[in-house]
Amino acid sequence: MEDYLIRVMTTNKEIRALAVNSTEVVKNAQEAHNTAPVATAALGRTLTAALLMGSMVKTGHETALKITGDGPLKKLAAEANHHGEVRGYVHNSKVDFMTNKQGKLDVAKAIGKGQLIVRKNLGLEEPYEGSVPLISGEIGEDLTYYFTQSEQIPSAVGLGVLINTDLSVKASGGFIVQLLPEASEETIEQLEKNLAKIEVVSKLIDQGLKPEELLEKVLTGFEFRTLAEKEVVYKCKCSKEDTKKLLVGLGREEIEDIIAEEGQVEIECHFCNEVYRFDKEEMNV
Ligand SMILES: [Zn+2]
Predict the structure, then answer these.
(1) How far is ligand 1, taken at its centre, from the CA of residue 236, in Å?
(2) Please, which of 28, 117, 178, 231 could form a disulfide with 155 given CB 3.0 to 4.6 Å?
(3) Rounded to the nearest 10 degrees, how much is the dihedral formed by the CA atoms of 30, 59, 134, 70?
(4) For residue 99, what is the DSSP state?
(5) Which of the four CATH numbers 2.40.128.110, 3.40.50.2000, 3.90.1280.10, 2.60.40.420 does domain 240-283 have?
(6) Residue 11 C-alpha to ligand 1 middle, in angstroms?
(7) What is the pLDDT averaged over residues 75-81?
(8) Where are the domains of the chain?
(9) Distance in Å, CA 76 to ligand 1 centroid
(10) How far apart are the CA of 273 and the centre of ligand 1, in A?
(11) Confidence of residue 1 (pLDDT cuts 50, 70, 90)
(12) Is the dihedral of CA 243, 130, 214, 81 positive or negative?
């Protein structure tokens, strides 16, 4: 089944929510970067979050998430656009199997203490950027904290990736639910009750729940209307032309030096591992 995302609003206009099945996206990311399990889980959650957040902004705008930590994964990045395309990478994809006391992959430990940075390109001169310290390293809780602190929107975020015993991706998905300013006390109480009861997202996806069925659980007791539904894919937007622009930005002298020494200049895309090569003529040096 193809991955897709839905965005809904309750008919009382007090809650908005999004949910996604990102199983294929995370499978593709795992294959592209050949990630070990804890890196797959951390990258998968980051990609899932970026997809959800990328669908909360207007067409043409992009959302980027960056997580830096003092744990072995060091850095995670994901970028998504409004069309449901996402790409990402993890600095150290080969971190050894790390599990916690419950035998679960220990994403929090693999990330460590650090920072979550959200960057939104909203078509303005300067992109919007907000950041918070990591409060748990589990990513979902950190994003919940980000929304509340940085954007002042009471929110809840659930993200999960389930890995097979052969280390491949079994299921992945997530949701974001946000209270709108008109939300009543009753609505808040009901939503809190629902969230306290909800099971781990990756397990629900693995049981075959579709994004709308996931939201039926999150929004038990509320009626809602679907505002948008779209396919999501893992897709890198890099190109030889853009890579050349990036190189030119490095400075002419540096490029001249590299070409003089190696005969060509090589640059690898972090997101998809595509290698672009430029020789003397192509760089006009
Ligand atoms: Zn690329």
Answers:
(1) 5
(2) 178
(3) 50
(4) B
(5) 3.90.1280.10
(6) 41
(7) 96
(8) 4-234, 240-283
(9) 15
(10) 6
(11) low
(12) negative
